[in-house]
Amino acid sequence: MYDYRRGRERGRERDESYRRKGSRRKHKRRRRRTRSYSPSSSRSDSRTRALSVRDDEEGHLICRSGDVLQERYEIVSTLGEGTFGRVMQCIDHRRGGAHVALKIIKNVEKYKEAARLEINVLEKINEKDPDNKFLCVQMYDWFDYHGHMCISFELLALSTFDFLKENNYLPYSIGQVRHMAYQICLAVNKLTHTDLKPENILFVNSDFTMSFNVEKKREERTVKSTAVRVVDFGSATFDHEHHSTIVSTRHYRAPEVILELGWSHPCDVWSIGCILFEYYLGFTLFQTHDNREHLAMMERILGPVPSRMIRKTRKQKYFYRGRLDWDESSSAGKYVRENCKPLRRYLLSEAEEHHQLFDLIESMLEYEPSKRLVLADSLKHPFFENGAIKKKCLSILKERGKREIELYMQHKSSPT
């Protein structure tokens, strides 16, 4: 087995997701797609830039605990930081003093444009899902603060990756995988996210219990609630919009993206299949950073790439006489052979629910996008037949609605 932790920390492409402090990992930013955005619709702060508003040399807004933006957001602490900007925990004085996450984008045009793109998507999500039934992170507000695009979100907890990492990559239980899987399938059923990965799936609350594993002689954490939200819609797209050639973080990238055959919603389904495997085992299915090696791993785990896809791709350099051009005797060939095996051989148990999970993963990892499981159908998969899962999701939504009403009533009754 390869050293998952070392490999993941060494070369994994990082995102610019909304995330908690402690997950400040380096990342490689993708080229962003552009889309229509009208400056006239921007809620810009048109006042002359005050002397007290300053940026550092990297373009970050300089702010401290106690500072108030827009006469509304009181800064409490820093939650996370990336090349895009910072995420601050704030008190929202117009939401009854509720704590929110405020994403403050650098005063750098390419990051501001990416933020506008994300705002457009989040506004469409809010319009189509006003009750927030589909478990995407909720955007409360956005504004331009002296050249810094700012987006206010509900305050979430650790990402599912960060929890895994802090728990020494101990896999989630089959029941936890089931509940998180159902929510993810529900969340991205209506759009194409294009960058699904454990870092972009956050727990609503990452509180945990501790127990001592006698066999491994270590403390282990169990998250109390597996309620999650999908975040980072800066790369999301709708079918009628322009599509970039390459999307998704490497380990979760579908074969049609690697082969530049065009992509749409099925690329998210592939990513989810990879995510569920990672939750179940604690390491990535495709631990690589090279296209040819990635395809070799796919063949080792899933079987040969379909001849139709080989014939259609412009990436003929990866193939020879209709087959993957791969040297099994090379050091890379040995690495793939020793660290990859047919998918079903990763099963941890012969119990029915484990086989059901792998049946779900297999249907999500179909090479041909047209044969890949449709997310609407995935919600009816036998792995989710346990009615308690749906009841649990409905319970979460009910509690969420109750909390929103309470905050509204607090604000309504507060003196102006």
Automatic annotation (TrEMBL):
One of its GO terms (molecular function) is protein tyrosine kinase activity. Keywords: ATP-binding, Kinase, Nucleotide-binding, Nucleus, Phosphoprotein, Serine/threonine-protein kinase, Transferase, Tyrosine-protein kinase. It catalyses: L-tyrosyl-[protein] + ATP = O-phospho-L-tyrosyl-[protein] + ADP + H(+); L-seryl-[protein] + ATP = O-phospho-L-seryl-[protein] + ADP + H(+); L-threonyl-[protein] + ATP = O-phospho-L-threonyl-[protein] + ADP + H(+). InterPro entries: CLK_kinases (IPR051175), Kinase-like_dom_sf (IPR011009), Prot_kinase_dom (IPR000719), Protein_kinase_ATP_BS (IPR017441), Ser/Thr_kinase_AS (IPR008271). Its main location: nucleus. Residues 73-384 form the Protein kinase domain. Residues 1-19, 44-53 have a biased composition (Basic and acidic residues). Coiled coil: none annotated. It is an enzyme of class 2 (transferase). Residues 20-35 have a biased composition (Basic residues). GO terms for cellular component: nucleus. It holds the Pfam family Pkinase. The keyword Kinase applies. It is found in: Nucleus. One of its GO terms (biological process) is regulation of RNA splicing. Residues 1-53 are annotated as: Disordered. Its EC number is 2.7.12.1. Belongs to the protein kinase superfamily. CMGC Ser/Thr protein kinase family. Lammer subfamily. This is dual-specificity kinase.
